[in-house]
Design a protein that fits this description.
With about 200 residues, the chain is an alpha/beta fold. It has 8 helices and 7 strands.
Length: about 200
C-alpha cells in the first residue's frame, strides 16, 4: 500500500488514531539532534539505529535504559528529560508535515472521530501539532502523562479510543515504529505502518 490517495478505512472502522512523531510530523531528525546534545555530556551513546528502534517510548524510560546499558549512574532523570525536551523545541522550525499521513487525517476529520496518541510529552506534542497546523483537527490528544504504561503496552491507544467513545476493535492506528504497531496489536486495533510513505532526508 504505497499510495495513500486510495486509502479507505476497513469496513467497520469507527475511529482513526495517529501517532505524532514520525507519523504526522517529520520530527525524528530534530529529536535525534536533541538527544545527542543532551546525552553527550553524560558519556551515554545513542546510535541512530537504536534511536529509531526505540521510537514511541517516553524520554525518561529511554534515559534509564541507555544509562543502564552504558553503566552510567544518572542522578536526576527528570532534569535530563527537561534538557532534552527544551533542546528539541529549539529545532521546531525544521519540522514538516508528513503529507501522505496528514492527507488521510484531513480527508476523514469531521467524518470519523480522530485522535493523536503519542509517547511524547504534551507540551512537545501540542507544539509539534501547532507547527504543522493540525492541532484543532483532533477530537482527543493522548500523551505520555495520560497513562501509567507506554508503548508497546496498549494503554495510550485504549485511552484514545475511550476518549473518542469508539470501541477499540473499531479503531485504525497509524504508526511508524514496531513498538507502536505492537501496541496497536495488543489494543486489538488495526495497525497501518506509514514507513513506506515516509521519505527521510
Amino acid at each position: 500500500m504505497s499510495d495513500t490517495r486510495t486509502w479507505t478505512p476497513p469496513a467497520g472502522t469507527a475511529g482513526l488514531i495517529f501517532d505524532c512523531d514520525g507519523t504526522l510530523a517529520d520530527t525524528m531528525p530534530a529529536h535525534y539532534r536533541a538527544w545527542t546534545a543532551m546525552l553527550e555530556p553524560h558519556g551515554i551513546p545513542f546510535p541512530e539505529p537504536r534511536f529509531y528502534a526505540m521510537g514511541g517510548m517516553p524520554t525518561a524510560q529511554i534515559i534509564r535504559l541507555l544509562a543502564a546499558d552504558a553503566g552510567v549512574t544518572v542522578a536526576d532523570v527528570e532534569a535530563m528529560v527537561h534538557t532534552k525536551e527544551q533542546a528539541f523545541l529549539t529545532f521546531l522550525d525544521a519540522i514538516v508535515a508528513i503529507e501522505p499521513v496528514v492527507a488521510i487525517a484531513a480527508a476523514h476529520r469531521g467524518k470519523l472521530p480522530i485522535a493523536v496518541a503519542s509517547g511524547g510529552y504534551r507540551d512537545t506534542i501540542t507544539r509539534t501539532l501547532d507547527r504543522i497546523a493540525v492541532r484543532d483537527w483532533f477530537d482527543a490528544i493522548v500523551t505520555a502523562e495520560d497513562t501509567a504504561r507506554h508503548k508497546p503496552e496498549p494503554d495510550v491507544f485504549l485511552e484514545a479510543a475511550r476518549r473518542l467513545g469508539v470501541p477499540a476493535a473499531a479503531c485504525v492506528v497509524f504508526e511508524d515504529t514496531d513498538i507502536g504497531l505492537e501496541a496497536a496489536r495488543r489494543a486489538g486495533m488495526h495497525g497501518v505502518d506509514v514507513r513506506p510513505w515516509v521519505v527521510r532526508g
